[in-house]
Amino acid sequence: MIVGAGPVGMTAALLLVRRGMDVTVLERHAEPYPLPRAVHLDGEAVDILRGAGVLEPFLRISRAMPGLRLVDAGHRVLAEFRRAPVGRFGHPDASLFDQPALDAVLAAALPDGVIRRGVDVVAVEPGPVVVCADGTRIAAEAVLGCDGADSVVRRSLGIGVRELRPAERWLVVDAVSPEPVDMWDGVHQVCAERPATFMRVVGDRYRWEFRLRPGEDGGSLSPPDGPTVIRRAVYTFHARVAERWRLGRVFLLGDAAHLTPPFAGQGLGAGLRDAVNLAWKLDYVLDRGAPDELLDTYQAERLPHALTTIRAARLLGWAMTGGRARQRLLRAAAHLPMAEVAPRLRGGPLVRRGGGKVLPGASYDDFAVVGNRLVRPDGVVAGTARTASGLAALTRSVNGCLRPSGSRS
To answer: Which InterPro entries match (predicted)?
Structure first.
């Protein structure tokens, strides 16, 4: 059972459905949310969409973004970080998209009846049992709380959050321009006393973001004349993590588990990494006889990476708001290798040191058990290349519990 039909919840559902598992997604809104929110994914996150079976439709609604420019208040370039059109995951290092279009792609790929809209979940109890507003109680083998920053799942279980920095209020304006804007086609970050962001998203869609000062409501801030505003909203940007991401068979994913400032563009990507990390583990525990302790590795692997991502975003936000000393730091940073925004993962509970290079957490969700090995359909053997959270170690750890791929309990 998944609570929340945003992109994280629907991607988790697709990953589980592709493993042959029965999934229901409960969504309180009767219709898909029509306004844009997330706009960026890196190459590894796009590879997760490949594993979910929606790469081709995603490529049709997105565009490769050439990079990030940090500019001063006079729009003079302080630093530029290029993004490759084809990175190490075989996809653009950075892609921009309109979230309603992504939501439609994910929903269309799910079997009919998986998403149940207009269902208001008011609590989740250990068991787990999902409690709906109409009094319906639904028992499930596992519940994935993908219901956002104000997660009902998290609150009903009494799980607190840890704030990592003071919150900031930003005005976000999305607009459609009838005429193309003459500009560099990447993302512009204005590093000044009032930080701001500007970009063309896809097609004729543009976005502006302005940090608000105390007491401001953003009424005096707006894009230039010409574009038609389709959304104008004040957001509070948090940096925080949930105190725990698992309680029995209930899990928190995406914004329910962690919130990052938007400066590194990793909010949605972090949630997709949660989904791909947890999906194959649920499959092995619920349907393949792996020990329940395997589920303990979800938070143990994902939390350090989420914290690293949040710290990177905080550092970029700090550098954007400073004077000359910070601007010199930005110029120096432009000479460092910055092809990837998301940090690489280090060792985790399922990774044993030695015996070949292992990159834990890479998005190989579509592996299969062949004999005593976990392999991808293209024949790459887990453990000799990047693997999904140390699959070579998993093979050694639970080999006696694994049944051939495709078998069901």
So the answer is: FAD-bd (IPR002938), FAD/NAD-bd_sf (IPR036188), PheA/TfdB_FAD_monoxygenase (IPR050631)
Contact 106, 55 (CB under 8 A): no
Q: What dihedral angle (degrees, nearest 10) is formed by the CA atoms of 85, 91, 95, 97? A: 130
Terminal-to-terminal C-alpha distance of the chain: 18
Tell how far CA 192 is from the center of its chain. 28
The pLDDT tens digits for 82-131 are 888 888 778 998 999 999 999 999 999 999 999 999 999 999 998 899 99
Cβ(386)–Cβ(51) below 8 Å = no
Whether cis (ω within 30° of 0) applies to the bond prior to 128 is yes
* DSSP of 156-168: HTT--EEEEEEEE
Q: Which amino acid is at 370?
A: V
Rounded CA-CA distance 53/47 in Å is: 10
The 10s digit of each residue's pLDDT in 333-349 is: 555 444 344 555 555 55
Task: Look at strands 143-145 and 2-3 and give their pairing.
Answer: parallel
Encoded amino acid at 75, one letter: H
